[in-house]
Write a structure and sequence with these properties.
The complex is a heterodimer of chains A (about 160) and B (about 750). Chain A is an alpha+beta fold and about 160 residues long. Chain A has two domains: about 80 residues, no CATH class; about 70 residues, no CATH class. Chain A is built from three helices and twelve strands; from the N terminus they run αββββββαββββββα. A three-stranded antiparallel sheet of chain A has the order 1-2-3. In chain A, strands 4-5-6 form a three-stranded antiparallel sheet, with helices on one face. Chain A is elongated and about 60 Å long. Chain B is of the alpha+beta class and about 750 residues long. Among the domains of chain B are: about 100 residues, Pleckstrin-homology domain (PH domain)/Phosphotyrosine-binding domain (PTB) (PH-domain like), CATH 2.30.29; about 220 residues, ABC transporter type 1, transmembrane domain (ABC transporter transmembrane region fold, Up-down Bundle); about 140 residues, P-loop containing nucleotide triphosphate hydrolases (Rossmann fold), CATH 3.40.50. Helices cover about 50% and strands about 15% of the residues of chain B. Chain B has 20 helices and 20 strands. The longest helix of chain B is centred in the middle third of the chain and has 53 residues. Chain B is elongated and about 125 Å long. Chain B starts with 17 loop residues before the first strand and ends in a 7-residue tail after the last helix. The chains are: A alpha+beta (about 160), B alpha+beta (about 750). Chains A and B meet through α2 and β9 of A and β3, β8, α8 and α11 of B. Chain A: This is DUF1854 domain-containing protein. Chain A: InterPro entries: DUF1854 (IPR015005). Chain A: It comes from Paenibacillus endophyticus.
Chain lengths: ~160, ~750
């Protein structure tokens, strides 16, 4: 088994993550370059920005980024873009309306991807907790939305949220 | 790529694929996408393919980006969590052309082969034949009104409104029409009777107050009163008797349908849910509903009829006074409507808390060994306390709401009662009304406000029942992922040829576990499935049993697509021996004969004998009559395994599936099992998965899977000599197991 490379703070500021001219993501580390790397979140819900596994084209782990925030500016940008592509879970920021029509629940919400309308057959299966104060809302089409820390939302959203869980 | 806000326009394909005639102007393929990746926003746009170009077109139909076919080498769909991206590969590298969320993935995937063949066609236009692409969303239609619905539901939301639900519940009552009719008649009669006593009392009071009162008349009136009471009590008894009988049968029928629905549902339904919740749901929800259908409904109708009857009497006695009591009625209705909304959401959240409690209990009991082994009893208790407290709190707030509202109702009605006393008293004093009438009036008024006050309680009752009904119908109506077609065929005998054609399947849409599987298994052939864990071996087996349907491609048995075969008939021809054998509560003989309960004992013994199980069964004091299962005798892993083999042998299936059948036993037992298996396999199409590769050495062909694809196929010798995938697996096992003599 390969050992895990946790990159230290100083090493993290040294590595370079960037999009090569062919559009693929590259990692440069101590002069060594790896092409076509992919990034994987170890804790996509609880620690989305921490413990990012960098994998080579054939799937082997090259490095473990303890915290993307410790990367230098351009690398951070490249990492964020790649992670955005790989993890398409919009985060619900506000709940605008909650309506029950028949047995279905209709939700109008604002997300970091823009406004979204969710229709759910029921709540007890569609809303599942994934961590302390963090939920995944799955709508009838199978799309997933994240809702974390309801206290951050405005009063109306919190009121709606209380009805939902 | 930037697009303006786009609204869905009529006539445009909605997440569907439109394949049109090829033309220099007209696109031959349009694919919808919904994520603008430069801004990371939801936005609708289309990827449009014309004869020589691929264009990204925004919602207004404006072209934003154009790629010439000559510059494109290849295309691919790359899955992400919750969606995917569409990439084009050019000579300079790869470019992300579109990004989309889950509902759009399948359409893009299906389009990729067509796009690839378009790319390989060269520049000349025309002559391009495209496979018809399946439209993904339009196939979802409501079973009732034929409106399009979201995938995963069997009925549209308009079809599941409350009244429809009530009607469906009422359908359960049809078999009991005549006793229910009797019940209803009695109900009307008893309401009528109940209205009589106050009027008799009025007559008595007036008679007594009269100086010339007749004793005879008084006696007759008093006897009448007594008779009415006796009659009313008798009717009450008959009604209750009918209610209990009908209710019991009704709830039985609903429970039966609910269990039937659970049995009908596919594996996928259970994969995504905590299973123990259904025990509680079948019991509690049906009970709640029974309460309503038997008592609640009767109560509701009685009170309604009574209110109408009383109102009639009140107007008959004194119209002016009676009109007064209608004043608070609109307020009451408004109040009840307000209450209804709150009760309904409170009730659902209370139900949810109960579900959480059930789930925690179920999980803890299923994992009790692990909990004890890790000394986590306290942690589990805390987890339970948390959900339990939530339940308590919600029950309290449900109660609080009612507590807060009911005094208002009481005071409101009391005030009107007092007003009637005052105004009526004045009329009596002025001689326009008799004392008897006033007495009767106030009695009726009390009776009238009784149901009005009870309506709050009734409301909560109604709410709970409707909530439960909704939950029940949710299970009964749950969509079956692998339904039997109406014209599905029954296979009486099969030869056992299994053919996978371009099969792709993923438990989650964005993460395929099997990719492009093409495999033909000949009748009577033994196939060993080999690969690292997670390579898709078990999934492949699940496809043969049709526990799931492929996302793309097909699996066929003897040339029949599995989707065209009745599932019951399909599984009759498949015998399964799994790593973990589940024994049902019953005797060993019953467990062996599980697939064919009417087998004679000779066959059971012969099967056990062939499975090398006969000897250990005979050593048990109770032999074949030994009770096993949850409450019975504990058998060892190897013993259970041999019972499973006997079970499969007795079924005499043409196709046999062995999933890690010898994984958890010692060497001697393994030898016994192996021996039994060799007998079992003879003459059957067999697909076996084994962790220990040595057990598959005699397979006719080994199929090596890696990351959902078939990477190698051949006999042990061939593959070992090739020194690639299979060789590496064998070698790594040699190193860890240190049994080189067994392999290679």
């Amino acid at each position: 088994m390969n050992p895990i490379y946790f990159l230290s703070r100083s090493e993290l500021s040294q590595i370079r993550l960037f999009r090569a001219s062919d559009g693929s993501l590259r990692l440069e580390q101590e002069g060594k370059a790896s092409a076509r790397v992919t990034l994987i979140r170890s804790f996509p819900y609880t620690m989305p920005d921490r413990f990012i596994s960098v994998r080579s084209a054939d799937g082997h782990e090259i490095a473990m980024i303890q915290d993307v925030k410790l990367l230098n500016g351009n690398s951070l940008q490249a990492a964020r873009e790649e992670l955005d592509r790989k993890y398409m879970i919009p985060v619900i920021t506000q709940i605008l309306t909650v309506r029950k029509r028949g047995s279905g629940w209709h939700l109008q919400a604002d997300t970091n991807y823009g406004p979204a309308a969710l229709v759910m057959e029921n709540l007890h299966e569609s809303i599942q907790p994934v961590a302390e104060s963090r939920w995944i809302v799955t709508d009838n089409e199978g799309r997933r939305f994240e809702l974390s820390d309801p206290e951050q939302m405005d009063a109306r959203s919190r009121e709606h949220w209380k009805k939902l869980i | 790529m930037k697009t303006k806000n786009a609204k869905r326009e009529a006539g445009k394909p909605v997440n569907g694929v439109a394949v049109e005639q090829q033309d220099t102007e007209n696109p031959w393929l349009r694919l919808r996408a919904d994520v603008d990746f430069t801004e990371r926003r939801f936005r609708h746009y289309e990827v449009v393919f014309k004869s020589l170009t691929m264009e990204i077109v925004d919602g207004q139909g404006k072209s934003i980006m154009t790629f010439h076919k000559n510059n494109m080498i290849d295309v691919s769909v790359r899955e992400a969590l919750g969606g995917a991206s569409f990439f084009i590969i050019t000579g300079d590298g790869e470019i992300e052309a579109a990004r989309f969320s889950l509902p759009y993935i399948e359409t893009f995937r299906q389009a990729v082969p067509a796009i690839k063949s378009w790319l390989s066609e060269g520049d000349e236009a025309g002559g391009l034949t495209l496979p018809a692409l399946e439209e993904s969303t339009d196939t979802y239609r409501c079973s009732k009104c034929d409106k399009t619905i979201s995938p995963g539901a069997s009925k549209c939301l308009t079809c599941s409104i409350r009244w429809t639900m009530l009607r469906r519940l009422a359908a359960y009552c049809t078999p009991y029409r005549s006793p229910m009719l009797v019940s209803a008649l009695l109900l009307v009669l008893s309401v009528f009777i109940e209205v009589i006593p106050p009027y008799l009392i009025k007559l008595i009071v007036d008679e007594v107050a009269k100086p010339s009162g007749s004793l005879k008349l008084l006696f007759a009136l008093a006897s009448g009163l007594a008779l009415v009471q006796v009659l009313s009590a008798a009717m009450q008894v008959i009604r209750s008797y009918l209610g209990v009988r009908i209710g019991g049968k009704l709830v039985g029928a609903i429970r039966r349908d609910m269990f039937g629905a659970l049995m009908k549902l596919s594996m996928r339904f259970f994969d995504h849910r905590q299973v123990s919740q259904f025990i509680g749901r079948i019991q509690d929800d049906t009970d709640e509903l029974k309460e309503f259908l038997t008592n609640g409904m009767v109560y509701l109708v009685t009170q309604l009829l009574l209110a109408i009857g009383i109102l009639f009497m009140l107007f008959h006695l004194n119209g002016q006074l009676a009109a007064m009591i209608l004043i608070p009625t609109p307020f009451l209705f408004a109040g009840l409507y307000w209450l209804w909304k709150r009760l309904s959401s409170l009730w659902y959240s209370q139900w949810q808390s109960a579900l959480h409690v059930n789930n925690v209990i179920g999980e803890a009991l299923q994992g009790i060994r692990v909990i004890k082994a890790f000394a986590q009893e306290n942690a589990e208790k805390n987890r339970f306390d948390k959900v339990n407290n939530q339940w308590i709190n919600r029950t309290i707030s449900f109660g609080n709401l009612w507590l807060g509202v009911s005094p208002i109702f009481t005071v409101l009605t009391a005030v009107f009662g007092i007003a009637v006393w005052y105004l009526g008293g004045r009329s009596v004093m002025s001689g326009t009304m008799s004392i008897g009438t006033l007495t009767a009036f106030t009695t009726y008024l009390l009776m009238f406000f009784g149901p009005v006050q009870a309506s709050g309680q009734l409301l909560s009752w109604l709410n709970r029942s409707l909530g439960s009904a909704e939950r029940i119908l949710e299970i009964i109506d749950a969509k079956v992922d692998v339904p039997d077609k109406r014209d599905a065929v029954e296979l009486s005998s099969v030869s056992g040829e299994i053919r996978f054609h371009g099969v792709r399947y993923g438990y989650e849409v964005e993460r395929p576990v099997l990719k492009d599987i093409n495999l033909t298994i000949r009748p009577g052939e033994m196939i060993g499935l080999v690969g690292r864990s997670g390579a898709g071996k078990s999934t492949l087996i699940n496809m043969i049993c049709r526990f799931y349907d492929p996302n793309a491609g097909s699996v066929a048995l003897d040339g029949h697509d599995l989707r065209d075969i009745r599932q019951e008939s399909l599984r009759k021809h498949i015998g399964v021996v799994l790593q973990e054998t589940f024994l049902f509560d019953g005797t060993i003989a019953e467990n062996i004969a599980y697939g064919r309960p009417d087998s004679p004992p000779e066959t059971v013994i012969a099967a056990a004998h062939a499975a090398n199980a006969h000897d250990f069964i005979c050593r048990l004091p109770e032999g074949y009559d030994t009770r096993v299962g949850e409450r019975g005798h504990r058998l060892s892993g190897g013993e259970k395994q041999r019972i499973a083999i006997a079970r499969a042998l007795l079924l005499d299936p043409e196709i046999l599936i062995l999933d890690e059948a010898t994984a958890s036993v010692d060497t001697e037992t393994e030898r016994l099992i192996q021996e039994a298996l060799t007998r079992l396999i003879r003459g059957r199409t067999t697909i076996a998965i084994a962790h220990r590769l040595s057990t598959l050495r005699h397979a006719d062909r080994l199929v090596v899977l890696d990351q959902g694809r078939i990477v190698e196929m051949g006999t042990h010798e061939e593959l070992y000599a090739k020194q690639t995938h299979y060789y590496r697996l064998v070698e790594s096992q040699k190193q860890t197991a240190k049994i080189p003599s067994e392999v290679g």
